[in-house]
Amino acid sequence: MSGQNKPIAAAPSRLSRLAVRPRSSAAPRTSELGDHDAVEGKGIAMAQVIDKRVTAEIEGAFVVFLIGMRINKFWKAWKWLPIFFAMPRMLRELEQRPEAGFLGASGYFGSPRRPMLVQFWRSFEHLETYARSRDAAHWPAWVDFNRRVGSSGDVGIWHETYLVPAGAYECVYNNMPPTGLGTVATLVPAAGRKATAASRAGIREEAYPDGAPTERIEV
User: What is the pLDDT of residue 21?
Assistant: First the structure.
């Protein structure tokens, strides 16, 4: 592609996905992938499918932060609705704060009961600083949850944090729009030294497996 993709989100599906990126940050680069432009939206855009195997490259260490909720008692909407609407406010805030170290996020609905976000951050320090900032949207939402819900069992919240050292990851996308890490990183062909999972993860260099079909893919 001769330029850069715009901020993106996948089209609605049974597993709904929403991609969010800071407005002032660079969109995923796909300079080696041919002409796969996206249609710009309000901070989010609908992305075209990239009809080849690609992988994502990101410089340095980064953090993957999973956060979600579980609606245990649907009828207590006054308990879970404030939590449901709190996260979009935080994402809008983070879009306007590139210095916060927030790289982007994708939202997933495994079911109406269990929405989840996959967030990417530059470092754990950035994530922790935002979470503890009294001037940011997260702190009052967290305090309000503990005050109104606590451990009552009405609605659950959870998170998991993964600190990823530089180069200690691998991913592949085939016939997909930019997805997951691919929405915040540089997309390159998953071929040559990046043709297999082990080589992409830096575990060992190896050729594509003998006997594996390659007629319709680039390896």
Answer: 58
CATH 3.30.70.100 describes domain 62-164: yes
Q: HSE on the CB side for 15, CA within 13 Å?
A: 6
Beta-carbon contacts of residue 88 (< 8 Å; ≥ 6 apart): none
102: nearest Cα among 130, 141, 76, 83: 130
Say what the pLDDT of residue 7 is.
32
Which residues, 6 or more positions from 142, have their beta carbon under 8 angstroms from its beta carbon? 131
Helix axis angle, 77-95 to 138-148, nearest 10°: 170
Q: Which residue has the tokens 């879009």?
A: 95
Radius of gyration for the alpha carbons in the chain, expressed in angstroms and rounded: 19
Is residue 36 within 8 A of residue 52, CB to CB? The reply is: no
| Per-domain residue ranges of the chain | 1-59+170-219, 62-164
Going by C-alpha positions, the residue among 219, 169, 202 that lies closest to residue 54 is 219
Owner of token pair 């800071």: 22
CB atoms within 10 A of CB 148: 14
Other CB atoms within 10 Å distance of the CB of residue 2: 8
* Per-residue model confidence as pLDDT tens digits over 117-175: 999 999 999 999 999 999 888 878 877 776 777 787 788 889 999 999 999 999 999 99
- Whole-number pLDDT of residue 58: 96
CB 107 within 8 A of CB 16: yes
Residue type, 129: T
